[in-house]
Amino acid sequence: MADLLNTSISGLLAFQRALDTTSHNIANANTVGYSRQLPDFVTRQAQQTGSGWVGNGVDVNTIQRAYDDFLASQARTASSQYHQSNTYATQAERINNLLGSSSTGLSATLQEFVNALHSVADSPTSIPARQTLLSQAQTLVDRLQSYDDSLRSFEAQVNASVEREANTISTLARNLAALNQQISSAHSQSGQPPNDLLDQRDRLIDELATHVNVNVVMQEDYSANLFIGNGQPLVVGQTYASVAATPDPFDPTRRNISVLSAQGSVDITDSISGGTLGGMLEFRSRMLDPARNDLGVISVALAQVMNQQHATGVDLNGVSGGDFFGVGGAQVLSNDGNAGTGAATVTLGDAGALTGSDYLLVSTAGGWSLRRTDTGASVSMTGSGTADDPFLAEGLAIVVSGTPAVGDQLLIKPVAGAIAGLQVLVKDPAGIAAAAPITSAAAAGNAGNAVISAGEVLDASHPQLRDTVILEFTSATTYTLGSDPTVYTYISGEAIEVNGWRVSISGTPAAGDRFTVSDNASGSGDNRNALKLADLLSQPVMNGGRTSLIAGVGAFVGDIGVKTNQAQVTRDAQKVVADEAAASLQSVSGVNLDEEAANLIRYQQAYLAMSQMIRVADTLFQSVLQAVRG
Protein backbone atom coordinates (compact mmCIF):
# COMPACT_ATOMS: atom_id res chain seq x y z
CA MET A 1 0.00 0.00 0.00
CA ALA A 2 1.42 3.28 -1.06
CA ASP A 3 1.83 5.79 1.69
CA LEU A 4 3.79 8.89 2.43
CA LEU A 5 5.78 7.41 5.29
CA ASN A 6 6.99 4.30 3.47
CA THR A 7 7.82 6.29 0.37
CA SER A 8 9.82 8.71 2.44
CA ILE A 9 11.61 5.92 4.27
CA SER A 10 12.54 4.28 0.94
CA GLY A 11 14.10 7.53 -0.19
CA LEU A 12 15.84 7.97 3.13
CA LEU A 13 17.41 4.52 2.87
CA ALA A 14 18.31 4.96 -0.80
CA PHE A 15 20.09 8.24 -0.23
CA GLN A 16 21.79 6.82 2.82
CA ARG A 17 23.22 4.11 0.52
CA ALA A 18 24.22 6.84 -1.91
CA LEU A 19 25.97 8.78 0.82
CA ASP A 20 27.70 5.57 1.98
CA THR A 21 28.87 4.93 -1.58
CA THR A 22 30.08 8.48 -2.03
CA SER A 23 32.03 8.41 1.21
CA HIS A 24 33.53 5.07 0.11
CA ASN A 25 34.64 6.69 -3.13
CA ILE A 26 36.21 9.64 -1.35
CA ALA A 27 37.96 7.37 1.13
CA ASN A 28 39.54 5.37 -1.73
CA ALA A 29 40.37 8.31 -3.95
CA ASN A 30 44.07 7.44 -3.70
CA THR A 31 43.72 3.66 -3.60
CA VAL A 32 45.52 2.06 -6.54
CA GLY A 33 43.18 0.04 -8.71
CA TYR A 34 40.02 1.34 -7.06
CA SER A 35 37.07 1.94 -9.36
CA ARG A 36 34.55 4.50 -8.25
CA GLN A 37 31.14 3.10 -7.40
CA LEU A 38 27.72 4.44 -8.27
CA PRO A 39 24.31 3.67 -6.78
CA ASP A 40 21.79 2.47 -9.31
CA PHE A 41 18.42 4.03 -8.32
CA VAL A 42 15.26 2.32 -9.52
CA THR A 43 11.67 3.33 -8.94
CA ARG A 44 9.61 0.98 -6.82
CA GLN A 45 6.64 -0.72 -8.40
CA ALA A 46 3.74 1.74 -8.34
CA GLN A 47 0.39 0.89 -6.76
CA GLN A 48 -2.75 0.95 -8.81
CA THR A 49 -5.62 2.96 -7.37
CA GLY A 50 -8.90 4.13 -8.65
CA SER A 51 -7.40 7.44 -9.49
CA GLY A 52 -4.35 6.02 -11.17
CA TRP A 53 -0.91 4.57 -10.37
CA VAL A 54 0.67 5.95 -7.21
CA GLY A 55 4.40 5.63 -6.76
CA ASN A 56 5.94 3.75 -3.86
CA GLY A 57 9.33 5.41 -3.67
CA VAL A 58 12.79 4.34 -4.67
CA ASP A 59 15.26 1.50 -4.15
CA VAL A 60 18.97 1.13 -4.81
CA ASN A 61 19.01 -1.80 -7.23
CA THR A 62 22.76 -2.28 -7.06
CA ILE A 63 26.08 -0.53 -6.53
CA GLN A 64 27.89 -0.45 -9.84
CA ARG A 65 31.57 -0.06 -10.61
CA ALA A 66 32.49 2.64 -13.08
CA TYR A 67 34.51 0.21 -15.17
CA ASP A 68 34.93 -0.29 -18.90
CA ASP A 69 36.09 -3.79 -19.85
CA PHE A 70 37.25 -2.66 -23.27
CA LEU A 71 39.36 0.20 -21.91
CA ALA A 72 40.70 -2.06 -19.16
CA SER A 73 41.75 -4.66 -21.73
CA GLN A 74 43.43 -1.98 -23.82
CA ALA A 75 45.28 -0.59 -20.81
CA ARG A 76 46.36 -4.07 -19.72
CA THR A 77 47.67 -4.98 -23.18
CA ALA A 78 49.50 -1.67 -23.53
CA SER A 79 51.05 -2.06 -20.09
CA SER A 80 52.20 -5.59 -20.92
CA GLN A 81 53.77 -4.46 -24.19
CA TYR A 82 55.48 -1.53 -22.49
CA HIS A 83 57.02 -3.72 -19.80
CA GLN A 84 58.25 -6.12 -22.48
CA SER A 85 59.82 -3.35 -24.56
CA ASN A 86 61.24 -1.63 -21.48
CA THR A 87 62.90 -4.84 -20.28
CA TYR A 88 64.25 -5.58 -23.75
CA ALA A 89 65.60 -2.05 -24.19
CA THR A 90 67.20 -2.00 -20.75
CA GLN A 91 69.04 -5.26 -21.41
CA ALA A 92 69.99 -4.16 -24.94
CA GLU A 93 71.54 -0.99 -23.55
CA ARG A 94 73.78 -3.10 -21.33
CA ILE A 95 75.18 -5.03 -24.32
CA ASN A 96 75.52 -1.86 -26.34
CA ASN A 97 77.46 -0.20 -23.52
CA LEU A 98 79.65 -3.28 -23.23
CA LEU A 99 80.57 -3.57 -26.90
CA GLY A 100 80.06 -0.10 -28.28
CA SER A 101 82.77 1.89 -26.52
CA SER A 102 84.93 3.73 -29.05
CA SER A 103 88.00 3.52 -26.79
CA THR A 104 87.70 0.07 -25.23
CA GLY A 105 85.22 -1.65 -27.55
CA LEU A 106 85.89 -4.54 -29.88
CA SER A 107 86.61 -2.37 -32.93
CA ALA A 108 89.24 -0.38 -31.04
CA THR A 109 90.91 -3.53 -29.70
CA LEU A 110 91.04 -5.15 -33.13
CA GLN A 111 92.50 -1.97 -34.63
CA GLU A 112 95.25 -1.96 -32.00
CA PHE A 113 96.09 -5.53 -33.00
CA VAL A 114 96.27 -4.50 -36.67
CA ASN A 115 98.52 -1.58 -35.73
CA ALA A 116 100.84 -3.99 -33.93
CA LEU A 117 100.99 -6.17 -37.06
CA HIS A 118 101.98 -3.13 -39.09
CA SER A 119 104.70 -2.31 -36.55
CA VAL A 120 106.19 -5.77 -37.01
CA ALA A 121 105.97 -5.35 -40.78
CA ASP A 122 107.82 -2.04 -40.46
CA SER A 123 110.52 -3.55 -38.21
CA PRO A 124 110.45 -7.31 -38.75
CA THR A 125 113.57 -7.95 -36.67
CA SER A 126 112.48 -5.79 -33.76
CA ILE A 127 111.89 -7.92 -30.69
CA PRO A 128 110.00 -5.11 -28.87
CA ALA A 129 107.65 -4.76 -31.87
CA ARG A 130 107.10 -8.51 -31.89
CA GLN A 131 106.52 -8.53 -28.13
CA THR A 132 103.98 -5.73 -28.55
CA LEU A 133 102.20 -7.79 -31.20
CA LEU A 134 101.94 -10.77 -28.85
CA SER A 135 100.70 -8.49 -26.08
CA GLN A 136 98.04 -6.98 -28.36
CA ALA A 137 97.05 -10.46 -29.51
CA GLN A 138 96.61 -11.50 -25.89
CA THR A 139 94.68 -8.31 -25.19
CA LEU A 140 92.38 -9.11 -28.10
CA VAL A 141 91.85 -12.63 -26.76
CA ASP A 142 91.26 -11.29 -23.25
CA ARG A 143 88.80 -8.73 -24.57
CA LEU A 144 86.84 -11.31 -26.54
CA GLN A 145 86.80 -13.66 -23.57
CA SER A 146 85.78 -10.80 -21.31
CA TYR A 147 82.87 -10.08 -23.63
CA ASP A 148 81.98 -13.76 -23.69
CA ASP A 149 82.11 -13.93 -19.90
CA SER A 150 79.89 -10.85 -19.66
CA LEU A 151 77.40 -12.33 -22.12
CA ARG A 152 77.40 -15.58 -20.16
CA SER A 153 76.73 -13.51 -17.06
CA PHE A 154 73.81 -11.87 -18.86
CA GLU A 155 72.45 -15.31 -19.68
CA ALA A 156 72.77 -16.37 -16.05
CA GLN A 157 70.83 -13.26 -15.09
CA VAL A 158 68.18 -14.12 -17.66
CA ASN A 159 67.90 -17.59 -16.16
CA ALA A 160 67.54 -16.10 -12.68
CA SER A 161 64.93 -13.66 -13.97
CA VAL A 162 62.99 -16.48 -15.63
CA GLU A 163 62.90 -18.36 -12.31
CA ARG A 164 61.86 -15.23 -10.44
CA GLU A 165 59.15 -14.42 -12.97
CA ALA A 166 57.85 -17.99 -12.86
CA ASN A 167 57.50 -17.83 -9.09
CA THR A 168 55.77 -14.45 -9.26
CA ILE A 169 53.32 -15.61 -11.91
CA SER A 170 52.52 -18.74 -9.90
CA THR A 171 51.88 -16.67 -6.78
CA LEU A 172 49.61 -14.30 -8.68
CA ALA A 173 47.75 -17.23 -10.24
CA ARG A 174 47.17 -18.76 -6.80
CA ASN A 175 45.87 -15.45 -5.41
CA LEU A 176 43.65 -14.91 -8.44
CA ALA A 177 42.10 -18.35 -8.05
CA ALA A 178 41.41 -17.56 -4.38
CA LEU A 179 39.79 -14.26 -5.34
CA ASN A 180 37.71 -16.05 -7.96
CA GLN A 181 36.43 -18.29 -5.18
CA GLN A 182 35.59 -15.32 -2.94
CA ILE A 183 33.92 -13.44 -5.78
CA SER A 184 31.80 -16.40 -6.84
CA SER A 185 30.78 -17.06 -3.25
CA ALA A 186 29.89 -13.42 -2.58
CA HIS A 187 27.89 -13.20 -5.78
CA SER A 188 25.99 -16.41 -5.09
CA GLN A 189 25.10 -15.20 -1.60
CA SER A 190 23.92 -11.70 -2.49
CA GLY A 191 23.23 -11.78 -6.20
CA GLN A 192 25.24 -8.56 -6.36
CA PRO A 193 28.70 -7.91 -7.78
CA PRO A 194 31.31 -7.66 -4.98
CA ASN A 195 32.89 -4.53 -6.36
CA ASP A 196 35.84 -4.25 -4.02
CA LEU A 197 36.79 -7.89 -4.63
CA LEU A 198 36.49 -7.29 -8.36
CA ASP A 199 38.87 -4.36 -8.02
CA GLN A 200 41.33 -6.52 -6.11
CA ARG A 201 41.13 -9.18 -8.81
CA ASP A 202 41.56 -6.69 -11.63
CA ARG A 203 44.52 -5.14 -9.88
CA LEU A 204 46.17 -8.58 -9.65
CA ILE A 205 45.42 -9.25 -13.33
CA ASP A 206 46.97 -5.89 -14.19
CA GLU A 207 50.02 -6.83 -12.16
CA LEU A 208 50.16 -10.22 -13.89
CA ALA A 209 50.10 -8.46 -17.26
CA THR A 210 53.26 -6.58 -16.34
CA HIS A 211 54.99 -9.96 -16.12
CA VAL A 212 53.41 -11.78 -19.05
CA ASN A 213 50.68 -11.19 -21.61
CA VAL A 214 47.42 -12.70 -20.41
CA ASN A 215 44.04 -13.34 -22.03
CA VAL A 216 41.04 -12.88 -19.74
CA VAL A 217 37.68 -14.58 -20.27
CA MET A 218 34.95 -13.45 -17.89
CA GLN A 219 32.35 -15.88 -16.57
CA GLU A 220 28.71 -15.34 -15.60
CA ASP A 221 29.48 -15.72 -11.90
CA TYR A 222 32.00 -12.86 -12.19
CA SER A 223 34.98 -15.24 -11.99
CA ALA A 224 37.73 -14.82 -14.59
CA ASN A 225 39.60 -17.49 -16.54
CA LEU A 226 43.15 -16.57 -17.52
CA PHE A 227 45.31 -17.97 -20.32
CA ILE A 228 48.96 -17.34 -21.19
CA GLY A 229 51.30 -18.39 -23.98
CA ASN A 230 49.53 -20.12 -26.82
CA GLY A 231 46.35 -20.57 -24.80
CA GLN A 232 47.60 -22.53 -21.85
CA PRO A 233 45.11 -22.20 -18.94
CA LEU A 234 46.65 -20.46 -15.96
CA VAL A 235 43.54 -19.86 -13.86
CA VAL A 236 40.21 -21.54 -14.51
CA GLY A 237 37.64 -20.63 -11.92
CA GLN A 238 39.03 -21.58 -8.55
CA THR A 239 41.85 -23.77 -9.88
CA TYR A 240 45.23 -22.62 -11.07
CA ALA A 241 48.31 -24.02 -12.74
CA SER A 242 51.86 -23.39 -11.60
CA VAL A 243 54.46 -21.84 -13.84
CA ALA A 244 58.01 -23.10 -13.43
CA ALA A 245 61.45 -22.48 -14.85
CA THR A 246 62.46 -25.83 -16.32
CA PRO A 247 65.78 -26.99 -17.79
CA ASP A 248 66.14 -26.68 -21.55
CA PRO A 249 66.00 -30.18 -23.06
CA PHE A 250 69.36 -29.61 -24.77
CA ASP A 251 71.14 -27.45 -22.21
CA PRO A 252 70.18 -28.00 -18.55
CA THR A 253 71.87 -24.75 -17.52
CA ARG A 254 69.41 -22.78 -19.64
CA ARG A 255 65.94 -22.09 -18.24
CA ASN A 256 62.69 -22.39 -20.15
CA ILE A 257 59.14 -21.63 -19.01
CA SER A 258 56.64 -24.43 -18.51
CA VAL A 259 53.07 -24.64 -17.26
CA LEU A 260 52.61 -27.41 -14.72
CA SER A 261 49.13 -28.80 -14.32
CA ALA A 262 47.45 -32.06 -13.53
CA GLN A 263 47.77 -32.93 -17.22
CA GLY A 264 51.55 -32.57 -17.10
CA SER A 265 54.21 -30.04 -18.04
CA VAL A 266 53.98 -27.96 -21.22
CA ASP A 267 56.94 -25.88 -22.42
CA ILE A 268 55.58 -22.49 -23.55
CA THR A 269 58.88 -20.63 -23.89
CA ASP A 270 58.49 -19.97 -27.60
CA SER A 271 54.94 -18.66 -27.25
CA ILE A 272 55.49 -16.31 -24.32
CA SER A 273 55.07 -12.62 -25.02
CA GLY A 274 54.49 -9.44 -23.08
CA GLY A 275 55.63 -8.27 -19.69
CA THR A 276 59.06 -8.50 -18.14
CA LEU A 277 59.18 -12.23 -18.81
CA GLY A 278 58.45 -11.71 -22.50
CA GLY A 279 61.08 -8.97 -22.60
CA MET A 280 63.71 -11.21 -21.04
CA LEU A 281 62.99 -14.10 -23.40
CA GLU A 282 62.94 -11.74 -26.40
CA PHE A 283 66.27 -10.27 -25.32
CA ARG A 284 67.77 -13.75 -25.03
CA SER A 285 66.55 -15.00 -28.40
CA ARG A 286 66.92 -11.81 -30.47
CA MET A 287 70.02 -10.22 -29.02
CA LEU A 288 71.97 -12.29 -26.52
CA ASP A 289 72.18 -15.57 -28.43
CA PRO A 290 73.00 -13.87 -31.77
CA ALA A 291 75.62 -11.67 -30.10
CA ARG A 292 77.39 -14.67 -28.61
CA ASN A 293 77.30 -16.50 -31.91
CA ASP A 294 78.50 -13.47 -33.87
CA LEU A 295 81.45 -13.07 -31.51
CA GLY A 296 82.15 -16.77 -31.98
CA VAL A 297 82.14 -16.40 -35.77
CA ILE A 298 84.52 -13.44 -35.49
CA SER A 299 86.84 -15.47 -33.27
CA VAL A 300 86.82 -18.45 -35.63
CA ALA A 301 87.43 -16.23 -38.65
CA LEU A 302 90.26 -14.43 -36.86
CA ALA A 303 91.94 -17.69 -35.88
CA GLN A 304 91.48 -19.30 -39.29
CA VAL A 305 92.84 -16.49 -41.42
CA MET A 306 95.71 -15.70 -39.05
CA ASN A 307 96.69 -19.37 -38.78
CA GLN A 308 96.52 -19.95 -42.53
CA GLN A 309 98.70 -16.95 -43.34
CA HIS A 310 101.05 -17.41 -40.40
CA ALA A 311 101.71 -20.98 -41.55
CA THR A 312 103.02 -19.66 -44.88
CA GLY A 313 105.82 -17.70 -43.22
CA VAL A 314 108.97 -18.39 -41.24
CA ASP A 315 110.12 -16.93 -37.96
CA LEU A 316 113.45 -15.41 -36.99
CA ASN A 317 114.85 -18.90 -36.53
CA GLY A 318 113.87 -19.94 -40.01
CA VAL A 319 111.16 -22.25 -38.68
CA SER A 320 107.89 -22.41 -40.51
CA GLY A 321 105.06 -20.67 -38.73
CA GLY A 322 102.43 -22.76 -37.00
CA ASP A 323 99.01 -21.77 -35.68
CA PHE A 324 98.98 -18.28 -34.22
CA PHE A 325 95.64 -18.65 -32.39
CA GLY A 326 93.92 -21.66 -30.88
CA VAL A 327 90.11 -21.65 -30.95
CA GLY A 328 87.36 -23.79 -29.39
CA GLY A 329 85.43 -26.32 -31.42
CA ALA A 330 81.72 -26.84 -32.15
CA GLN A 331 79.34 -28.17 -29.51
CA VAL A 332 76.75 -30.87 -30.09
CA LEU A 333 73.99 -31.22 -27.47
CA SER A 334 71.59 -34.14 -27.35
CA ASN A 335 67.91 -33.73 -26.46
CA ASP A 336 67.22 -35.37 -23.11
CA GLY A 337 64.16 -36.99 -24.64
CA ASN A 338 66.06 -38.86 -27.32
CA ALA A 339 65.23 -42.57 -27.44
CA GLY A 340 68.21 -43.67 -29.53
CA THR A 341 71.97 -43.40 -29.24
CA GLY A 342 72.59 -41.08 -32.19
CA ALA A 343 75.48 -38.68 -31.83
CA ALA A 344 77.45 -36.33 -34.05
CA THR A 345 80.88 -34.77 -34.29
CA VAL A 346 81.09 -31.40 -36.00
CA THR A 347 84.18 -29.80 -37.50
CA LEU A 348 84.27 -26.21 -38.63
CA GLY A 349 85.27 -25.58 -42.22
CA ASP A 350 85.59 -22.25 -44.01
CA ALA A 351 84.76 -19.43 -41.61
CA GLY A 352 83.36 -17.47 -44.55
CA ALA A 353 80.55 -20.00 -44.83
CA LEU A 354 79.53 -19.81 -41.16
CA THR A 355 76.20 -18.10 -40.61
CA GLY A 356 76.19 -17.52 -36.86
CA SER A 357 73.09 -19.67 -36.47
CA ASP A 358 72.68 -22.83 -34.42
CA TYR A 359 71.25 -25.91 -36.11
CA LEU A 360 68.89 -28.72 -35.24
CA LEU A 361 69.88 -32.12 -36.63
CA VAL A 362 66.81 -34.35 -36.65
CA SER A 363 66.65 -38.08 -37.25
CA THR A 364 63.92 -38.97 -39.73
CA ALA A 365 62.74 -42.18 -41.33
CA GLY A 366 64.83 -41.30 -44.36
CA GLY A 367 68.00 -40.26 -42.55
CA TRP A 368 69.03 -36.97 -41.00
CA SER A 369 67.68 -33.50 -41.73
CA LEU A 370 69.12 -30.14 -40.76
CA ARG A 371 67.44 -26.83 -40.08
CA ARG A 372 68.42 -23.49 -38.62
CA THR A 373 67.15 -22.64 -35.17
CA ASP A 374 66.91 -18.88 -35.79
CA THR A 375 64.69 -19.02 -38.87
CA GLY A 376 63.53 -22.63 -38.91
CA ALA A 377 64.65 -22.89 -42.54
CA SER A 378 65.76 -26.29 -43.80
CA VAL A 379 69.41 -26.58 -44.77
CA SER A 380 70.47 -28.96 -47.52
CA MET A 381 73.41 -31.26 -46.84
CA THR A 382 75.75 -33.14 -49.11
CA GLY A 383 77.61 -36.31 -48.14
CA SER A 384 76.54 -39.40 -46.25
CA GLY A 385 77.55 -38.42 -42.71
CA THR A 386 80.45 -40.87 -42.41
CA ALA A 387 84.00 -39.96 -41.42
CA ASP A 388 85.12 -40.36 -45.05
CA ASP A 389 82.11 -38.54 -46.46
CA PRO A 390 80.69 -36.22 -43.78
CA PHE A 391 77.58 -34.13 -44.18
CA LEU A 392 78.63 -30.71 -45.46
CA ALA A 393 76.46 -27.68 -44.87
CA GLU A 394 77.15 -23.97 -44.34
CA GLY A 395 80.76 -24.36 -43.20
CA LEU A 396 80.12 -27.50 -41.12
CA ALA A 397 81.37 -31.06 -41.57
CA ILE A 398 79.09 -33.39 -39.63
CA VAL A 399 79.90 -37.03 -38.86
CA VAL A 400 77.03 -38.97 -37.30
CA SER A 401 77.28 -42.16 -35.28
CA GLY A 402 75.18 -44.43 -33.10
CA THR A 403 71.65 -45.64 -33.71
CA PRO A 404 69.15 -42.80 -33.48
CA ALA A 405 65.41 -43.24 -33.15
CA VAL A 406 63.13 -41.39 -35.52
CA GLY A 407 62.51 -37.95 -34.07
CA ASP A 408 65.72 -37.79 -32.05
CA GLN A 409 67.29 -34.34 -32.11
CA LEU A 410 70.81 -32.97 -31.78
CA LEU A 411 71.47 -29.27 -31.29
CA ILE A 412 74.61 -28.08 -33.08
CA LYS A 413 76.20 -24.90 -31.75
CA PRO A 414 79.05 -24.31 -34.18
CA VAL A 415 80.73 -21.36 -32.47
CA ALA A 416 79.33 -21.36 -28.94
CA GLY A 417 82.60 -22.67 -27.52
CA ALA A 418 84.94 -20.83 -29.87
CA ILE A 419 85.89 -17.98 -27.54
CA ALA A 420 86.30 -20.17 -24.49
CA GLY A 421 89.04 -22.03 -26.37
CA LEU A 422 90.59 -18.93 -27.93
CA GLN A 423 94.26 -18.47 -27.03
CA VAL A 424 97.54 -17.14 -28.39
CA LEU A 425 99.71 -20.12 -29.26
CA VAL A 426 102.87 -18.18 -30.15
CA LYS A 427 104.70 -17.36 -26.93
CA ASP A 428 108.19 -16.40 -28.18
CA PRO A 429 108.46 -13.06 -30.04
CA ALA A 430 111.04 -14.65 -32.34
CA GLY A 431 108.43 -17.27 -33.24
CA ILE A 432 106.28 -14.82 -35.18
CA ALA A 433 106.50 -15.87 -38.81
CA ALA A 434 106.91 -12.41 -40.32
CA ALA A 435 109.11 -13.55 -43.21
CA ALA A 436 108.31 -15.53 -46.33
CA PRO A 437 109.89 -18.99 -46.44
CA ILE A 438 111.43 -18.43 -49.85
CA THR A 439 113.64 -15.77 -51.32
CA SER A 440 114.39 -14.99 -54.93
CA ALA A 441 117.43 -13.44 -56.51
CA ALA A 442 118.91 -12.71 -59.91
CA ALA A 443 122.43 -13.88 -60.69
CA ALA A 444 125.02 -11.14 -60.58
CA GLY A 445 126.18 -11.64 -64.13
CA ASN A 446 122.81 -11.60 -65.92
CA ALA A 447 123.09 -9.82 -69.25
CA GLY A 448 119.40 -9.03 -69.74
CA ASN A 449 117.22 -6.57 -67.88
CA ALA A 450 114.68 -9.08 -66.54
CA VAL A 451 113.81 -8.90 -62.88
CA ILE A 452 112.16 -11.47 -60.61
CA SER A 453 109.42 -10.82 -58.07
CA ALA A 454 109.88 -11.57 -54.36
CA GLY A 455 107.70 -14.64 -54.64
CA GLU A 456 104.73 -15.84 -52.66
CA VAL A 457 103.69 -19.11 -51.04
CA LEU A 458 100.76 -21.00 -52.48
CA ASP A 459 101.04 -24.22 -50.49
CA ALA A 460 102.90 -23.99 -47.19
CA SER A 461 102.70 -27.77 -46.75
CA HIS A 462 104.44 -28.59 -50.01
CA PRO A 463 107.40 -30.86 -49.13
CA GLN A 464 109.74 -29.14 -51.61
CA LEU A 465 108.62 -25.63 -50.78
CA ARG A 466 112.00 -24.50 -49.48
CA ASP A 467 114.18 -26.46 -51.92
CA THR A 468 116.43 -24.35 -54.08
CA VAL A 469 115.28 -24.01 -57.69
CA ILE A 470 117.39 -22.35 -60.40
CA LEU A 471 115.53 -20.85 -63.31
CA GLU A 472 117.89 -20.54 -66.30
CA PHE A 473 117.03 -18.92 -69.61
CA THR A 474 118.05 -20.90 -72.64
CA SER A 475 117.08 -17.99 -74.86
CA ALA A 476 115.26 -14.74 -74.54
CA THR A 477 111.96 -16.62 -74.81
CA THR A 478 112.64 -20.01 -73.15
CA TYR A 479 113.86 -21.28 -69.83
CA THR A 480 114.34 -24.43 -67.73
CA LEU A 481 113.68 -25.11 -64.06
CA GLY A 482 116.40 -26.87 -62.05
CA SER A 483 117.05 -30.41 -63.17
CA ASP A 484 113.79 -30.55 -65.08
CA PRO A 485 114.81 -30.88 -68.76
CA THR A 486 111.52 -29.36 -69.91
CA VAL A 487 111.96 -26.11 -71.78
CA TYR A 488 109.28 -23.57 -70.93
CA THR A 489 108.19 -20.62 -72.99
CA TYR A 490 108.82 -17.30 -71.31
CA ILE A 491 106.18 -14.59 -71.28
CA SER A 492 107.13 -11.44 -69.44
CA GLY A 493 105.13 -10.98 -66.25
CA GLU A 494 103.52 -14.41 -66.40
CA ALA A 495 103.32 -16.33 -63.11
CA ILE A 496 105.70 -19.25 -62.66
CA GLU A 497 104.47 -21.77 -60.06
CA VAL A 498 106.75 -24.47 -58.67
CA ASN A 499 106.92 -26.46 -55.41
CA GLY A 500 104.08 -24.54 -53.76
CA TRP A 501 105.41 -21.05 -54.55
CA ARG A 502 104.87 -18.51 -57.27
CA VAL A 503 107.16 -15.88 -58.84
CA SER A 504 107.02 -13.77 -61.93
CA ILE A 505 109.82 -12.47 -64.15
CA SER A 506 109.42 -9.30 -66.12
CA GLY A 507 111.65 -7.71 -68.76
CA THR A 508 113.92 -9.07 -71.43
CA PRO A 509 116.29 -11.78 -70.28
CA ALA A 510 119.32 -12.95 -72.19
CA ALA A 511 120.34 -16.52 -72.85
CA GLY A 512 122.21 -17.81 -69.82
CA ASP A 513 120.57 -15.45 -67.34
CA ARG A 514 119.76 -17.21 -64.09
CA PHE A 515 117.35 -16.61 -61.24
CA THR A 516 117.27 -18.51 -57.97
CA VAL A 517 114.39 -19.26 -55.62
CA SER A 518 115.70 -20.69 -52.37
CA ASP A 519 115.06 -21.17 -48.70
CA ASN A 520 114.81 -17.97 -46.67
CA ALA A 521 116.77 -19.66 -43.93
CA SER A 522 116.87 -16.95 -41.28
CA GLY A 523 114.02 -14.76 -42.41
CA SER A 524 115.88 -11.84 -40.92
CA GLY A 525 114.74 -8.50 -42.30
CA ASP A 526 111.95 -10.01 -44.36
CA ASN A 527 108.48 -8.58 -43.73
CA ARG A 528 106.53 -10.08 -46.60
CA ASN A 529 104.40 -12.39 -44.46
CA ALA A 530 103.90 -9.69 -41.81
CA LEU A 531 102.54 -7.37 -44.50
CA LYS A 532 100.09 -10.05 -45.59
CA LEU A 533 99.09 -10.69 -41.99
CA ALA A 534 98.44 -6.97 -41.48
CA ASP A 535 96.49 -6.75 -44.71
CA LEU A 536 94.59 -9.94 -44.01
CA LEU A 537 92.14 -8.42 -41.58
CA SER A 538 90.97 -6.07 -44.30
CA GLN A 539 90.37 -8.87 -46.78
CA PRO A 540 86.84 -10.30 -47.28
CA VAL A 541 86.92 -13.56 -45.36
CA MET A 542 83.51 -13.58 -43.68
CA ASN A 543 79.92 -13.74 -44.82
CA GLY A 544 80.65 -15.82 -47.87
CA GLY A 545 83.77 -13.82 -48.76
CA ARG A 546 81.95 -10.50 -48.83
CA THR A 547 83.02 -9.00 -45.49
CA SER A 548 86.42 -8.42 -43.90
CA LEU A 549 87.09 -9.05 -40.24
CA ILE A 550 87.36 -5.34 -39.50
CA ALA A 551 84.16 -4.62 -41.40
CA GLY A 552 82.51 -7.64 -39.76
CA VAL A 553 83.35 -6.35 -36.29
CA GLY A 554 82.09 -2.90 -37.27
CA ALA A 555 78.87 -4.38 -38.65
CA PHE A 556 78.41 -6.47 -35.51
CA VAL A 557 78.86 -3.49 -33.18
CA GLY A 558 76.72 -1.34 -35.47
CA ASP A 559 73.95 -3.94 -35.50
CA ILE A 560 73.96 -3.98 -31.70
CA GLY A 561 73.65 -0.20 -31.73
CA VAL A 562 70.81 -0.24 -34.27
CA LYS A 563 68.90 -2.90 -32.34
CA THR A 564 69.37 -0.95 -29.13
CA ASN A 565 68.15 2.26 -30.73
CA GLN A 566 65.13 0.49 -32.16
CA ALA A 567 64.39 -0.98 -28.74
CA GLN A 568 64.63 2.44 -27.11
CA VAL A 569 62.32 4.00 -29.69
CA THR A 570 59.83 1.17 -29.29
CA ARG A 571 59.95 1.51 -25.52
CA ASP A 572 59.32 5.25 -25.65
CA ALA A 573 56.41 4.77 -28.05
CA GLN A 574 54.91 1.99 -25.95
CA LYS A 575 55.13 4.15 -22.86
CA VAL A 576 53.06 6.85 -24.54
CA VAL A 577 50.50 4.26 -25.61
CA ALA A 578 50.40 2.71 -22.13
CA ASP A 579 50.04 6.09 -20.42
CA GLU A 580 47.22 7.12 -22.74
CA ALA A 581 45.41 3.81 -22.25
CA ALA A 582 45.75 4.10 -18.47
CA ALA A 583 44.49 7.69 -18.59
CA SER A 584 41.48 6.63 -20.66
CA LEU A 585 40.58 3.96 -18.13
CA GLN A 586 41.21 6.32 -15.25
CA SER A 587 38.85 8.89 -16.77
CA VAL A 588 36.09 6.32 -16.39
CA SER A 589 37.07 4.54 -13.19
CA GLY A 590 39.01 7.16 -11.26
CA VAL A 591 37.51 9.10 -8.37
CA ASN A 592 36.93 12.76 -9.13
CA LEU A 593 36.79 14.54 -5.78
CA ASP A 594 34.92 17.53 -7.23
CA GLU A 595 32.28 15.23 -8.62
CA GLU A 596 32.07 13.31 -5.36
CA ALA A 597 31.73 16.56 -3.41
CA ALA A 598 28.82 17.56 -5.66
CA ASN A 599 27.21 14.17 -5.19
CA LEU A 600 27.69 14.45 -1.46
CA ILE A 601 25.75 17.72 -1.37
CA ARG A 602 23.11 16.38 -3.73
CA TYR A 603 22.50 13.21 -1.75
CA GLN A 604 22.66 15.08 1.55
CA GLN A 605 19.96 17.49 0.42
CA ALA A 606 17.85 14.63 -0.83
CA TYR A 607 18.32 12.83 2.45
CA LEU A 608 17.28 15.94 4.38
CA ALA A 609 14.26 16.35 2.14
CA MET A 610 13.25 12.78 2.85
CA SER A 611 13.62 13.50 6.56
CA GLN A 612 11.29 16.45 6.18
CA MET A 613 8.83 14.20 4.38
CA ILE A 614 8.88 11.82 7.33
CA ARG A 615 8.26 14.77 9.64
CA VAL A 616 5.32 15.82 7.47
CA ALA A 617 3.99 12.26 7.59
CA ASP A 618 4.36 12.28 11.35
CA THR A 619 2.56 15.62 11.59
CA LEU A 620 -0.29 14.34 9.47
CA PHE A 621 -0.47 11.15 11.51
CA GLN A 622 -0.56 13.14 14.77
CA SER A 623 -3.28 15.36 13.32
CA VAL A 624 -5.37 12.31 12.54
CA LEU A 625 -4.86 10.94 16.05
CA GLN A 626 -5.79 14.32 17.55
CA ALA A 627 -8.94 14.43 15.47
CA VAL A 628 -9.94 10.92 16.56
CA ARG A 629 -9.42 11.70 20.26
CA GLY A 630 -11.77 14.61 19.81
Automatic annotation (TrEMBL):
Residues 93-325 form the Flagellar hook-associated protein FlgK helical domain. Residues 588-626 form the Flagellar basal-body/hook protein C-terminal domain. Residues 5-34 form the Flagellar basal body rod protein N-terminal domain. It is found in: Bacterial flagellum; Secreted. Signal peptide: none annotated. Residues 162-189 form a coiled coil. GO terms for biological process: bacterial-type flagellum assembly. Keywords: Bacterial flagellum, Coiled coil, Secreted. GO terms for molecular function: structural molecule activity. GO terms for cellular component: bacterial-type flagellum hook; extracellular region. It holds the Pfam family FlgK_D1. Residues 333-414 form the Flagellar hook-associated protein 1 D2-like domain. Belongs to the flagella basal body rod proteins family. This is Flagellar hook-associated protein 1. It comes from Steroidobacter denitrificans.
